[in-house]
Each structure stands twice: as structure tokens, then as C-alpha cells.
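Lab notes, practical 5.
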Amino acid sequence: MHPDVPPLIREKVSPEGRRHHAQPVRALGFLTETEPSDLDSTLASADIAMEMGPSTVLVTSVERPDPPRGPSR
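Output from the prediction step:
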């Protein structure tokens, strides 16, 4: 990717959107220049994304360092 593209997306395109669908979490980190690694940091990154302009940020996955144990489905 050309080095001018990420700032263009973050600074020009993202603020003009009404919704962000950040999937996977790495995309949210890219947009907000953060490194979400758990639920709290993912929610903080979503707040930062909303401050950029969109009124809705949809996060469809969260990385969890401690996934729950239980039967697989």
C-alpha cells in the first residue's frame, strides 16, 4: 500500500462516513492508530473512531487474551 493511503483513509474518508464496520479488529486499530487487544481497549478504540465522525461503529469481533473455556459448538 502506498504510504499516503492510510492517512487519507483516516483523515479524509473516515470522518465523512456515517457508519464504520470494523471487521476484523485490526481494521479498527488501523483507523484509530490503536492496538485493541481486549474488550476494554476495543471499546476505547470504537470511541475514538466515533470521535472521527461516524455516529455508529460496528465491531463484529473482539480479540480476547483469555477466551472462555467450555464445550465447543
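Observations recorded by the TA: The helical segments are 5-16, 25-32, 39-51. Strands lie at 19-22, 56-59.
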